[in-house]
Amino acid sequence: MEETPKNEANKGAVAAGGPTGTKEEGKDLTAVLSYLGILFLVPLVARKDNTFAQFHAKQGLVLFIAEVATMFISWIPFLGWFVGTIAWLAWVTLSIIGIVNVLGGKRVPLPIIGKFAQKFKF
Predict the structure, then answer these.
(1) Closest Cα to residue 63, out of 113, 118, 115?
(2) Which domain holds residue 60?
(3) 8: in domain
(4) Which residues 6+ apart lie within 8 Å of 61 measured at CB?
(5) Which residue in 46, 53, 80, 120 could disulfide with 31, CB within 3.0 to 4.6 Å?
């Protein structure tokens, strides 16, 4: 009976980077910053050697560009207010999806913006 919890714990450790402690320290928390506005710069600059953080930072960059574009669109009376509100809801939803992916240790491209983020090569 004692083996089952250990096996379950090992499954989580393997998914997170391996049972041997190969999971990079701070990987998840650093990559979460990618989806919090301009803070995408932190993992982009500070974690250049971490491909997981870079993947999410690139998606955060595209998301940030979309948010800035939405801000300008929102200044247009009536139609811009409507389109801006819908777009902001989409960006917040994508940010939440991205944060959930980071915390789950997944490299899943976000809907809509993921294909644009993959074009960045730094």
Answers:
(1) 113
(2) 25-117
(3) no
(4) 40, 44, 117, 120
(5) 53
